[in-house]
Amino acid sequence: MASLTKRAVILIACRVMNYGVLILSPIFLVRIFDMRSYGQYREFVIYAMLLSGLIGFGVNTNLLYFIPKHPGKERQSVTNTTLLILIASFIGIAAILLLRDVVRNRTSYDFVGPLVAYIFFFINLDFYEHYWLGKKRTDYVLYYSTARIAVRTLAVIVVAYVTRDVSCVLWAMIAVEACKCILMLILFRRSFARGINVPLLREQLRFIVPLGSAAVITLINGQLANFTISIKMGVERLALYSVGSHQIPVINIVRSSVMDVLFPEMTQTDDAGRLNLWRRANVMFCFLIFPVYVVFFIFARTFIEILFTARYLEAVPLFRIYLSIILLQCFEMGTPLRAINRNAYFIVGSMITLAVNIGFILAFFGAFGFLTPGFAYILGEASAILYIGWMILRLYRLEFRALFFWRKIIRIVAACAIPMPVLFAGQLVRVGAIVEAVVPAIAYLAIYFVVIRAFRMEEVELLVGKVRKLLRR
């Protein structure tokens, strides 16, 4: 567990730094562009994210499973993965070109050309992180992903500032992804096999198809709100919605980092071992995320105003709604099923999420308007979590009380509640919005840390010890 924690800490640090760089993009763009231009930029990003996810189908993630499982077939795994994505990209791009008039009729401007180019370069040869995570080398992931995001963010901000033109920003994004493809060809020129390993390809497809199908449905579910706002309300409201739905990605960073490290280990152990790793990981998620949720919920208005300017204050209620999703995401439900290759259940879970999401939007958009997709998204995610949790109980033959370390989670909730009065201390002395938020938040987190350490939970002590060693280095 110690080496796993070390790798997880490195990966978390990597992705926190990446987010710190990535968030600079919207912070600067809302100041460089007016609301309509920023909405047009977000419109392109929505289509690019959705279509690249549909076409890429999560194929790259199979390397996390197959490299540790079949270390002797590493080159064949990489070759099969690369060819699958290349074929999918040609098919997907052909479909986009055939339906280009449909896209143009539903968007505020014509970006089909840049969209096709961006998708091709973005999804192809994009396996570097999953490849090295499968080989348990989080340090390589740290260097590569940080450099890539820094270059992309810098390119977007500089081009936007110099040109004030959304189209130029799109082509800058394309150029960065094209450079990535060239770099990957150079780095992995000797890592490709000369032929396709057909038996391995069949095994990979059995792994990819259910997970990819679930990922596609989840992606549609995640972008449904943006499309609804864009089509029904226009790009100005989309700009506002993109700020309000801007989730604090702490849980995604922590959860994906920890589970990417644990997953190769969980494929190589028995049921009891993988469940123990999984439960302990969820305790870590709650320990790290619960206090962050409290701080951002209380200071949501300050966060939006400082980062995105007062023009976007109307997005504060929506931000609080979407913020609640990180509480649900603290309970990571997918890995126990993925580790035993029971991926078909994710399709059902994703379909439940999508059905609840669509149903709520259709039924209540007139009543709640701008906030409706946020409520729908939360309800859909909760429904999927309940379903997947039920399947874990069945497949692992568990009672509900054995699903998580409930007592430890209750202690974390108590540690969050005890210092909450400190968060309102800033309102007693008016010294500026930033100081009124930052100082109480730091005091709250410090007291929370002292209280949680008093409970002497093994997962917390292990994580704190690893962070200390990392900082010393």
Overall description:
This protein has a domain at 1-206. It has helices at residues 2-22, 24-32, 35-56, 62-69, 74-98, 100-105, 112-123, 128-134, 138-163, 166-187, 198-233, 235-244, 250-266, 271-298, 300-308, 316-323, 325-329, 335-338, 344-368, 372-395, 406-417, 433-454, 458-472. It contains 23 helices and no strands. By secondary structure, the chain is mainly alpha-helical.
Considering the chains and any ligands shown, give keywords for the structure:
79% helix, single chain, 0% strand
Short description, anyone?
The protein contains 23 helices and no strands. By secondary structure, the protein is mainly α.
| Helix coverage percent | over 70%
**Strand pairing plus helix content: what structural class?**
mainly alpha
Number of strands: 0
Q: Flag low-confidence runs.
A: none
Q: Helix tally?
A: 23
Shape type? globular
Largest beta-sheet details: none
How much strand content do the residues show? under 5%
Span of the ends, CA to CA:
20 Å
Integer-rounded radius of gyration: 22 Å
On the 0 to 100 scale, the average pLDDT is 83
Summarize the helices and strands and which ones pair or pack.
Elements: H1 2-22, H2 24-32, H3 35-56, H4 62-69, H5 74-98, H6 100-105, H7 112-123, H8 128-134, H9 138-163, H10 166-187, H11 198-233, H12 235-244, H13 250-266, H14 271-298, H15 300-308, H16 316-323, H17 325-329, H18 335-338, H19 344-368, H20 372-395, H21 406-417, H22 433-454, H23 458-472
